[in-house]
Amino acid sequence: MGRIGFTELIPIIVVVLLLFGGKKIPELMKGLGNGIKEFKNATKEENSKAQQTTNPANKSTEE
């Protein structure tokens, strides 16, 4: 499989417009962007927690 070209992209866009309509697409993209942002924030938090547990010298003084 190769990359998606312009000729393949046009029918995909037409089908999406027919299914969702022009007004729903910005809402869908906004929701997708928020979901990606939340996922990135969650992975950053988990990575920082994992680093704190592996490096006890870097723990904060919350105890």
In a nutshell, what does this entry contain?
The protein has 63 residues and is mainly α. Helices cover 73% and strands 0% of the residues. The mean pLDDT is 84.
Report helical residue fraction: over 70%
Question: What does the largest sheet look like?
Answer: none
Distance from first to last alpha carbon: 55 Å
Total count of strands: 0
Please state the average pLDDT score.
84
Strand content bin: under 5%
Low-confidence stretches: none
Succession of helices and strands: HH
Q: What's the total helix number?
A: 2
Q: What spatial form do the alpha-carbon principal axes imply?
A: elongated
Query: Oligomeric form of this entry?
Result: single chain
Helices and strands: which structural class?
mainly alpha
The radius of gyration over CA amounts to: 21 Å
3D structure, described in words:
Residues 49-63 have a biased composition (Polar residues). It is a single-pass membrane protein. It is found in: Cell membrane. Belongs to the TatA/E family. It comes from Paenimyroides ceti. The protein is mostly helical and 63 residues long. The protein has a domain at 24-51. Helix content is 73%, strand content 0%. The protein has helices at 6-20, 24-54. The radius of gyration is 21 Å and the shape is elongated. The termini are far apart.
